[in-house]
Amino acid sequence: MDIKTLTQESSPEIRGMLAGKIAMEYSDNHFSASEASIAADIFRVLVKDVEIQIRKTIAERLADCPHVPHDIILKLAGDDPEVSLNVLERSPVLTEDDLIAIVRSTHEVVKLCAIARRHSISEDLSGSLLETANTLVWQNLLKNKGAALNERQLMKSWEKILSNSSLLETLVDRGGLPLTIAEKLYLAVSDELKESLKIQYKSFSPHLHSAVDDAYEWKLLGLSQSDECGDLWDDGRVGDLVRELYGKDRLTHSLLMRALCIGNLKIFETGIAKLAHIPRVNARILLLESSGLGFEAIYQAAKMPEGFYEAIKVLLRISLEETEFGEIRRNDFRKRIIDRIYIGKHHRTVENMEYLLAIIGGKSVVGSNLH
Hints:
- The chain is an all-alpha fold.
- Helices cover 65% and strands 0% of the residues.
- It is built from 25 helices and no strands.
């Protein structure tokens, strides 16, 4: 009776009501298989209806339905925003490929924001949304704790994020950020937000200590941040230091990066071996392996920050050459490293190299915890 009325009724309001009723019954699985097939065919006709209210009603009713045919949902997703937003934000039928294609093909910000609010967002989809470079889209994405942030794309977007206090605050409130992002964020925000970050990231708060606290810790463990002799320690002393750091949950990626930046190659080598859970001799083989595959393997095993992979790879190679593979330590080590980075233009071509240069040069970076 409803279907007969729907085909004969001229009033958009009544037709919209009936279309919504059928869509609700369909979504709730109240139809037999044959009835559901007929209903789907009706939807295929109605999604082309000239009356936007009818299309909108169907979209609202079918947005959460997991068994509606893909072609119907895709048609609704491509409709005017008034129709499509619920489907874009909620439909489980839309695939990741569908959503990425929509993000890359539309300039309608309201649609992009709807996608950014979805319950679950993969890193690839997150990266596509960040590529839009739209502040409102970013705001919706960064607020969404169900979104897996694409670290590499987020790092590429960092300069723009830095210029927007609202985005910075949103990141602080969000929590659960990758180490590299949390540290950059710590540097950029107010003292009040720094305290909030310390509370949220208590599990790896060593990365967020002040310079004074961190220098004190290194001194306590027998190594100054500016120690020119640390790389000449015997293997036993280095091993003891690394084990103590590891036992106190202080053998962090930041500390290893700092050690490499000031030329303490033994500490870097021993520390990354510890984090990768392999013998130091194996770590040395992997780090010196010429193809770079060994370095990649140990870097991933130690779960070092993805965004610093190329920068640390370049810095390690230059450091090994300047120390004759760890055999000598020149007094002008840092100057030599900085000169070679600039001569090779690595500060322009390698992601996060400027960040490491600040550490090598002794400048305060990332909440003043790296020197």
